[in-house]
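Worked problem 6 (solution included).
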Amino acid sequence: VDKAGGYPSASSGLSAGASARLKAAEERAARAEQLLNSAMQREAVSAEERVALREQLDETEELVKGLTQQLDGLQQSLQQERSRCEALEKELEQVHERSRTGPAAQEGDRKGNIS
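Solution. The predicted structure is:
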């Protein structure tokens, strides 16, 4: 060991303990590199999944928007039909009322006389 720097001299080589520590450090570095590569692969997969989910969400939002518009149209049609039915029911009620009062009342109504 070189006393000035505290490092082994080139001529001395590595002791058995230093060699074992170096080998252990290299194994830890290799394992850390494997873990890093695995984490990077998982991150890449996650990024792809996020993109796919975003696309699916966009498609779903468009579908919901279209269905909402259809539902709004159906509700509007339903309201129009409901109003039409109410008008027809009222007209039918008036016809029934006239038929209950008899032909004489209807004749008076036509001449402007209310009985």
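Discussion: The helical segments are 16-111.
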